[in-house]
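Annual report, structural modelling task.

Input specification for the zinc ion complex:
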Amino acid sequence: MTTSPGCSRCDGEYESGLHVVRDCPKSRDLWVSFGFVDPEFFSRETWCWIREATRGSSGMLFLAIIWWAWRWRNGEVLNDETWGLEQVRAKINMLYMDMRSCWSGNIQEEYTVKDCGARQRGLD
Ligand SMILES: [Zn+2]
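The model returned the following structure:
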């Protein structure tokens, strides 16, 4: 992050990692543009958010979006890049297609993740 704790992209209060990739208005617009519109999606804690979002058929798309949301922020903040939403969407679609050509099936099957609820309850 930058030396200021605030987000330079939206003048938000604290630029956490989750703010950068999900909650910053630019990132939120990106998620919504790909159909991630469920309010619960935007309210989960980091661990549960990643776990739930990587399940099922949209897991690879989720990973492509999260990468480019991070890269978009870094390009703007560190390199004065000025990409628009459609440019980032195109990059995401290209990465997503590459990922799909490398993996088949559900990425969740590649590793085991402990129960999200147990983690929240401090049981693991
Ligand atoms: Zn922000």
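Residues 4 and 92 are 28 Å apart (CA to CA).
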